[in-house]
Amino acid sequence: MDWLYVLMPIAGVEIFWPGLIILGIGVGIIGGFFGMGGAWMVTPGLNILGFPMAFAIGTDIAHMAGKSLIATMRHGKFGNVDYKLGLIMLVGTVVGFELGAQMVMWLERLGSVEVVVRYLYLFLLTGIAWLVFADVAKIKRKERENLHSGETNEQAKGIEWHKTFHKIKIPPMMHFKEAGIYCSAWLPIMVSFLTGWLAGILGIGGGLIRMPSLIYLVGCPTHVAVGTDLFEVMISGLYGAATYTFKGRTELVAAIIMLVGASIGAQVGTVATKYIKGYGIRVVFGYAVIGCAISIVLKLLAKQIPAYSSLFDGTATALILGLVFAMSAYIFIMMIKGAKAEIAAKK
Amino acid sequence: MTLKKRIKRVIQWIVMGVFFWPSLLWAAGEKAEAIVIVADTRKLSGMMAWWGNLYNESHVYFMLLTIVLIPIIGVLFGTVADFIMAHIGIDLKSRELAEH
To answer: Domain coordinates of chain B in residue numbers?
Structure first.
């Protein structure tokens, strides 16, 4: 069975290549569906496959750039990408990220910052999960009320913080066609600055924060939030791939093998958004956030109780990989069901 | 300082900025350590040996290869997936479902 293993030319380790393709397909489906890079899912997966950590981040980013490029192109054809909004937000994201990263370095000089960052991350994820499920609960309650009062034509609305922000009319005012919003340009700039700043502090790509921010703060429809977020992931991914490779921290062979699976998976995930309503995407996203939060709790416990650190770390890895499998399987099944119905309707 | 020198210095700063400042940008975990990793090409042959040697000789060329190969491979396999899905009969040009 030697043919199932490939020697990584730079890292010098033999890796089970079908594992890389399977991991790529899983994170590709999830990335295309939610509009995020998903580094928090890839790194433990690479670790399990025996990948040296020195190359994990660079390799992850390199494959992420390729899959988000093709997924952005597909989302663009569905009208899910607001390029104008994406470009404006890119400015805020970069500036915010740099400030956040500088702040972490400053905090590091003051003392250990790692645990504080993990707690902040946990707090933020809990907030996002609450927001998503509170929003869905509100929608359901309104739908029930409408049903009782006989107002079946009225569309139930969830949390709409963006309406308050849209009332702030600081020039220049801008119209974002795909997103269908008219607001001050400062709103997406400030939101991207804030999410970039948080991502810089937390040391993450930021898709997990940016996607819900685009929905609840900027007012994008869910599908457009997913596509526009992927556009940002694509640009930052290409940039990140270049810089990490320049520093010699990318195992390109592994990135290419992963990308074979991820680019196909990303197309599947993107097409699946055709068949799942906006609120359906939000609910599955909420579960992903909860899974991520639990894995962080386990990692915190591993730090707090060193005697059981391997148990907690192992459980966190198993949880994340289980989540990748469960979510990608769910999205794939929904895509198959939707495609079947679409093809049947055509006949 | 002449204008030519000033322009040269600005370009140098931009190049430095592009390659060194973003070390902070992608920090989805620990930062890349400041150690040089050399690929052991003694065990490699053919394409893999060329690959390893390219990495050892120039990270710049290796980076250029990466940023050319990654988008091409992504688009190539994504297009294959598109072709299969279109062949099955999935409409890849429009989306009907809206927010709810």
So the answer is: 40-92
